[in-house]
Amino acid sequence: MDDQLLSEPPTASAAALAQQRGLGEWTGRTYATNQGWRYRKWQGWRLYVYVGGVIVTAPDGYEAAYDWGTTRVLQYRRSVNGALRDARYTLIDPSGNAVNIGPGMRGMLNKEKQRLGITSMVNGAPFSYPGDWGDPIERGITRAQLPGVVERIQRGGTVEFGPYKADRNGLASKKRTATWAEIDQIRVYDGMARFWASDNRTLVDSQFTHDIPNVNLFLNLCHYLKG
After folding, report:
1. Minimal CA–CA distance to 10: which of 24, 95, 141?
2. What is the rounded CA–CA span in Å between residue 73 and residue 200?
């Protein structure tokens, strides 16, 4: 049996955790890992997708809930000769509990964990077809958090996304700033977020997308604020 979307309902303990965390209804989407001999250590891992978040479980009793309203996600994708090789997603809850899921590997230094506020990390199952479950995770987070982020900025606040800070005036990286009016184009190219002026000048520093927590939310916010 290949990695696949299952109709398998959540276990009783996963359903209870989802109810406790207010994740709403199960969407009918459950992901399992490849059951071949190469994936024996990952057999029994599950990813349950709810309206308001996801639950990751393992046969050893590990269970973790991540709701769209408070979760941060780091997306690491690497292609070799045009083929996607790694697609690791790191989910981080408000307490700093993190889990890596998806195929491939991504090393994270202790200083990076400290910067992200990660207090514990579990290397989870290499669920395949990350577009099927990874994209919905990022869209769910964006839908849940974008209105609050916009409101905070409109009230004069500043929001931080890893190497970037955004407010109602513009965007700042470590060494450079740009107003929203100056930013003409926002693109992700070669795994990096890039910002150009209308005369093709590079504005704020380009950064790898895997260093930007909630990168989908961040890019949507930038497009909204620049109009």
Report:
1. 24
2. 31
Neighbours of 76 (CB within 10 A): 21
Using CA of residue 102, residue 105, residue 110, residue 114, what is the dihedral sign?
A: negative
- Which DSSP letter does residue 128 get? S
What tokens appear for 26 in the block? 């199960």
Q: Which of 99, 81, 82, 79 is nearest to 91 (CA)?
A: 99
**Could you tell me if 75 and 215 are in contact, meaning their C-beta atoms sit under 8 angstroms apart?**
yes
> Which residues lie across from 72 on neighbouring strands?
92
Q: Which residues contact 50 (CB under 8 A, 6 or more apart)?
A: 18, 23, 24, 25, 26, 27
Distance CA 68, CA 45 (A): 21
User: Nearest-CA neighbor of 125 among 47, 48, 61, 67?
Assistant: 47
Q: What is the pLDDT along the chain (227 residues), one digit of tens a residue?
A: 344 677 899 999 999 999 999 999 999 999 998 766 666 788 899 999 999 999 999 999 999 999 999 999 999 877 655 656 678 999 999 999 999 999 877 778 899 999 999 999 999 999 988 888 999 999 999 999 999 999 999 999 999 999 999 999 999 999 899 999 999 999 998 889 999 999 989 999 999 999 999 999 999 999 999 98
Helix (H) or strand (E) holding 225: helix 215-226
Distance CA 225, CA 227 (A): 5
